[in-house]
Design a protein that fits this description.
By secondary structure, this protein is mainly alpha-helical. 73% of the residues lie in helices and 0% in strands. It has 13 helices and no strands. Helix 2 (22-47) runs parallel beside helix 7 (116-130), helix 3 (58-78) packs antiparallel against helix 7 and helix 3 packs across helix 12. The protein starts with a helix and ends with a helix. The relative contact order is 0.14.
Length: 247
């Protein structure tokens, strides 16, 4: 329990430190919101001319963007420290954390909060409001999938950052692979096929962040729910193991 109490305190301090820089906080949040809306507007224009993309409608895309942006926003605000794992490993910053009480990985995860994450969370609310999939019956699924996908994003960031244990300065590589994860998650399942789809459900798990949760919301099933939850928990365990093996 003391580890989780320490984790919550670290998160609180990280968030307060970003909010204290009011101008930067509001500007970063605002421009992230605008950026997300601009990207979504391209889909709006597309669907004003075409009815669907192999069964995917504008409402489905709005739900997809809501989940991806919401999960990434939660990650950025509450768990953003994982983005800096590679740099901390390479520059020896872990040394000051190792001597502290247990919960090293939790300390790292809670060490940074990014202001732009609030813009992602706000834009997620906008996208959900534009989707016909938002209802009282689907709300538990949305909350569940936001939590699960946020956990997958965090775990992937930990795995990529932990590469620095073996290959040295991997901050740039980790950042690029992380961007791939988010980029591929923002497109409907129908544009992927064969080996690419398998790749996006395993090596870079963009599918479990984007189109898999949307498919389950469109056609609810226990198998679909358990697949997302099971994968997120298994991947979190894998990420933790990779980090401590490297350490």
């Amino acid at each position: 329990m003391s580890e989780w109490k320490s984790f919550k305190n670290h998160v609180k301090v990280s968030i307060l430190s970003t909010i204290s820089l009011r101008e930067s906080f509001f500007l970063q949040s605002f421009f992230m919101l605008v950026s997300n809306l601009v990207f979504f507007s391209f889909w709006w224009i597309y669907f004003s001319n075409f009815k669907s993309v192999k069964g995917w409608t504008l409402s489905d895309i709005a739900c997809l963007y809501g989940i991806v942006n919401g999960a990434y926003g939660l990650f950025s605000v509450f768990l953003g420290g994982t983005r800096y794992i590679a740099r901390m490993i390479f520059e020896g910053d872990l040394d000051t954390l190792i001597i502290k009480p247990k919960g090293l990985l939790l300390q790292i995860v809670a060490s940074k909060s990014m202001s732009m994450g609030w813009g992602d969370i706000l834009s997620s609310c906008v996208f959900f409001s534009l989707s016909s999939h938002l209802s009282l019956s689907s709300l538990p699924f949305l909350v569940l999938f936001l939590s699960s996908t946020c956990l997958i994003i965090t775990s992937f960031s930990i795995v990529m950052g932990s590469l620095a244990f073996w290959i040295g300065d991997s901050h740039t590589l980790s950042k690029q692979l992380f961007e791939f994860l988010l980029t591929f998650s923002n497109y409907p399942k129908s544009i992927y096929a064969g080996a690419i789809k398998i790749f996006l459900l395993t090596v870079i798990p963009s599918g479990f962040i984007g189109f898999v949760p949307v498919d389950v919301i469109k056609e609810p099933s226990l198998a679909g729910v358990f697949s997302v939850i099971g994968f997120s928990m298994a991947y979190a365990y894998f990420a933790r193991r990779i980090f401590y093996i490297g350490l």
